[in-house]
């Protein structure tokens, strides 16, 4: 409920069309549903994107199902579920039409919308092991109405692989750069393109990669401009932000 | 044995009613029972609360049972056991009347006391995944004689959910704010209420949440006054402290 | 503006006594003054304590003076300024009647209120070097209307010093335990008393104290119940919270 | 030199219009000038924005002047210099028409361009102490052709201050959220708006803020979607990225 | 394709022998094969060593097999696979002649080449538990055409064991020093020999060894000259670098 | 071989009693046996204690058996094996007379020697969960010929339990203080006794105990004199050092 | 006051020789003097060593002087002041006969006692830069009545320097090993001697030495038995402990 | 003194040409000079390189002068002094012919030797601010007899600058890659060349660069083979190792 809507409602109060008590309840109570264990946010669905998202980790299959039911009941056509275990996916499939990608552990309930973003989002990875996180980003972007091009295994130790796709990169509206180990991919891409680059450090690596910290620090300290960073392994966050940029 | 009791005993020594040797032993030996592997503290039971507590992690079911037996034998009506595994709970149930909450892994031996605290303790969480820790806090507070209101999944990314419960928050005598990820819940609640807010960072999250460190640092650096912090996932500590405040 | 006040205002709108536009502006604009570089919070002053607080670090003397002027102009009788450099104190003294404690870098503009808290707050330190932080806590508590007892240099390596003040500790309504190095003071006091203990780790120490991290971790992991922690060197936060508890 | 330009040049080689040796040199040598201590990138200036940027830290005044001269000589109308010490600013002013903001240590050589971005960029801070970093972001965005609205001291401990500017926030095309301490500002704004939010953790704070690490982790773990993060105190990076988004 | 080859090709374009379009494709496309999930680098195989390497961790057996097939198809006689699980080894053996060392989890497909390096590489360990990492280094060096001498369990707490092999060490062309715990082996060997010493910290140890961090820091801070360090447990990297030095 | 023995041997060379070649081999080769995977140190056995020690972690049962055989063959009457898994213990029992303590995972092959140390070693723990580490210390000390007194569960949150054993502590020749969580036990004991206190931080705890780091830092920063620290969970190291002190 | 003394006093109470009130006061009040800012511990002086110690850091010259006066007034012949700034030393010299070593910032008030320890303490350093910390240890040991041998600049990168002093090391009753950078000195010495080795990591080094952390971790993970560790740069602690061992 | 020399000496003892006592002293005493505060290593000078090195940090000008005198007196023609403050340089110039580079704080006493290494060492930096560390590496290599090519400001955000020098890089015998911030330079160069790459992370950067830790981790996790790492800012170590490789 933005300022204009708030003002309209206050005018209705002034006109005696609704009581003050009703007005106050309306502000608060219509914006979400209280399931006890969760309060799915119906206001956010209208405001921020085509699909509503459920973060699956730390929730029981029953809880995920309950939230999905609540969202679908309010008219949400696409529900994206991330970090969805195969067991929970099995459970959800009983009640919902859902596509499930086991690699990225992403489930999409309902239909995948037609792409309506302004351009193309490129999702690139440094290596083969980064693909699960990259797919979380790519599927998120697709579920939110974007065309996605995948460029996998183009790490900086073999620059010709990356430079061979320079045209693809340069024509993107946003690039999601997914890399573990030293995470230099974001910087090198950032130096090549003139659109926003969203770095996703991955926990791929061993020893002093410290579960993605090396890549995270590398990306935060990028010497290229236009690079920002999301949490380690947060493919969803990068795909969501890329979609937001692509729909401006 | 406080100063007055110590003085009384010394007077009895002076009056020849008890010998110096007995006096010294009395000071030390009556305050706890020595089970070898543990020394349950009977003095503390009298001093600090209605119920005595056993921290279950790192103890065998037999050890937990032995300590519970010792406490019960000294007249302790309620024994709270935290971090109690389902297997140990099974073992304890053979000998004790015990309620067990599998989610928070809390067991309550004996009766739950009537609430005798001055007000209401609110336990709030940022998300659904924080509920196990929150329940440890809530059940602890209830076992120590408090009325508890639960506000779950009111994280700061959807402020209307939190603001919708502003009245509940403002009428609390203490608030336990349980949150993982960025842990901003404590700060936002701290800005809304005028009672103590006890922040409990949880290990919920991934990547750069570092098992609760992000939430911990966030809460320690809260820009709101009246916020203090307990250890990561330490629902018990928060519930205990909230009870202490509610019984002042 | 709490729910009741909000409802009252909405009723006035319903009665035509104030216009919807005015109502909306009133909600937002009366709660703080916009100085451009700062937005002093007049709502908070009414809600949370006897005195309003300015955190002096990172602000120019002119900015501190401007905020103080704004608060005083709204009727705030006591303004506490923490982390106030001697130079800024010099500047403020030109325009304000202010007491300044150079050790703790605390300034108190206006009168120090009569103690109206329920009991006594004890501020204890492990060593002599912790006194500046302890004084920030003690002066904050005094400025907010509390009686304070100081117990300095009672670190755990010489237990008799601490036990010699056991009665003082046991009669407190809240204890602020200020310690650097290994920070064990909070745990030991927590085992002695039955009131809340607020641990303040200090950056006193060297080497592996890591600027207070050792004491911070020690206090967070306290094996005593009833202990919570504020940020390293945050004497103000501890004093504020202790006052809040003492005024319940 | 993109694929098309590369192809054109190769065709000129095929047509005998330029020799192979000249072609190869052209590819490499025209793209930057080699000053020995620095290789200013003329290719980037054309590709990525209206102004070219010099990162002033770790460079002598003479080096900064030399690079600026090189850029100006190639036709760059606006040169932004960040982390510019007052002494170096003094030195540059002898040879260049430059505006210098001492607070943010930003210098702008040449003219500030007319805003040509699609919308407005909002730069918000949690507190007064975050303003220097915020100004680096705001001045960078202005130097790159953007309209900027400043919202300072709207930290989450006084939500009404932030909510009072909700309309301003909601009409932004990108928001730069600058905050130290617990850094919750990015999450709360991220929950309010539907445009990208760029979090800039600042090194403002003390103790367990660890020079901005607490705010950094908090922002990386934001529970709000659409939030990404740049390096601690990196106002420039945030302003640059916001401009890039505003010019899509 | 180095400068000379690039120039030759451009001359062929100038002579009309190949078209510009073909030239450009040739540069990019011949350098690797695109398998979708991976882009094996054929250019690198020619450039850097006798054998090509596949890092097995995070890849499915099918992916490893596909990459190996691609490399073998291009004429690579020896393919080294590191971090190869027993299950994946089982899978590969169906289609490839492969030696597999279960301790170090190294597989060698094809023939092990004759040693053609200039001297001998010594691989030393501090303890028995470091042997798996040491064997990864030794087998890598052997697969790349080097003679290797193994010196195991010569940690610094029993100097006579190390000094007893001083001659062996002093005659090496490169030494790989593999050690966990305090990692002092690299420093002590570095003081004895006049060839490069490559330190490999291992994750062997417990408590404050922090998974190899203690050894890593120890080696990075070596007071001996000529010591450099690779990632924790990175036996492959050390063996590869030692081979490179031995083939100069 | 100390300086005197070295000199004697050189004199035998000068007298022609042994050849230079034999002398050199003798120095190096007699000091240990080379098993390939390990080089058991016979010199150390003579020099440093009654029993020889095998660190069992990271070694196969066969390797442990082989080293034990080598030591026994050289006349070592007692062999202590630490970090010995139940499976490896099972394996060793086939060939050796061995006592095995499953809690501390310590095995003692051969006879436990009669105590010949000067005094008594006290091993104290903060809690019940610290007992496994404490037993590693106690059994090590006993295997090396010391009388040991165990004081378990005497943590600082219940000081009377510790003070009740003050006499036991004060009569010790060395104290091993084993504690996790905040690790304050070492400081408090250090303030009570006048003999060396060896702190052993344990990985007992959760959240911000960081696997023993909190206790480690606490003990390193002890404000009591006479306290030194060994690695986290290193009961063996503490028991060994305490024995060394007790045999001076 | 140990158990015997306590018992004696209780007997006097029983005999009516002293009143209970006096007895209680006597226990507490005679053990230290309360200076307000400090509580010098007279009990400890009797119990733990020949000299009493003042830790000078974080205390004003006046406070140090006041504590020294108190200790001298109680009959303490030697007062050791550590971390004493030149300015404070200047101040103290007005009132006390004091030797001051500017390198280690140690002051000794009163006479240095005759050595009465059982053997010799060796203080060794890895490099020249570690000497200030080593001198703090050596002077502390001397002030507490020990003979000290200094072995400086015997780091492990030049083993012959250390081995050249093997006899000196082997005849020590305790060795203090002072080293920064990789801190391997403690391990190597620990392998050579059969007496306790006290490791003192120093903050000497740069980059990844992290102010002594590398050396600290190295020493904590020593593969040699008999090594324990004190805080970074804590020469005093090592000297004190070595003296304690030398006086057993 | 290697095995052969040791054997020769023992034969002289056997022949009665030298006494056993003299032999032993000779082994130890001739290898270094004992200055008390330092033990310059004459054995190392003969063994490891053309020049001897003094690490200047933490040493007084007098100590540096004394060591230099000792080395020169033994016939060392070139003495390299690193981390030499301008004040100490001033002091040394009185007695020694010395070149001093203020940027890298390197002093070279005596003559710079003619290059006698096998090839060329390339020293590359990511930015202008990395030059001081790079010069330490380059001057070290030159003082040890190497030809050095400098490639400065070729960071990965502008790949064409680096690729423009690909031939120079590919013809090197060793590359020193000096970079702060995200440190990706080492990986990208490592992918281009077939000689060893020595990464030197620098402390250049701010915020989450953590004084070079980001670059250090990035380089340790390099996905390119043939890359090893030295300590942060350790230009000397990299130059020394590169020289060692160039002289094999």
Topology:
Eight copies of one chain form a homooctamer.
Chain A: H1 3-14, H2 20-29, H3 42-48, E1 52-55, H4 61-73, E2 78-82, H5 86-93, E3 98-101, E4 106-110, E5 120-125, H6 131-143, E6 147-151, H7 159-163, H8 166-170, E7 174-179, H9 185-192, E8 197-201, H10 213-220, E9 227-229, H11 235-246
Helix pairs in contact in A: 4-5, 6-11
**Total domain modules of chain A:** 3
> Please, what is the oligomeric state?
homooctamer
- Under CATH at level 1, the class of the largest domain in chain A stands as Alpha Beta
Mean pLDDT of chain A: 88
Q: Please give the share of residues in helix of chain A.
A: 40-55%
Which sheet architecture does the biggest sheet of chain A show?
5 strands, parallel
β-strand percent of chain A reads: 15-25%
The CATH architecture of the largest domain in chain A is: 3-Layer(aba) Sandwich
Order of helices and strands of chain A, N to C?
HHHEHEHEEEHEHHEHEHEH
Distance between the termini of chain A: 21 Å
In what order do the strands lie side by side in the largest sheet of chain A?
6-5-7-8-9
The poorly predicted ranges of chain A are 44-49
Number of helices of chain A: 11
CATH topology of the largest domain in chain A: Rossmann fold
Radius of gyration of chain A: 21 Å
What structural category characterises the helix and strand content of chain A?
Answer: alpha/beta
Number of strands of chain A: 9
Shape of chain A: globular
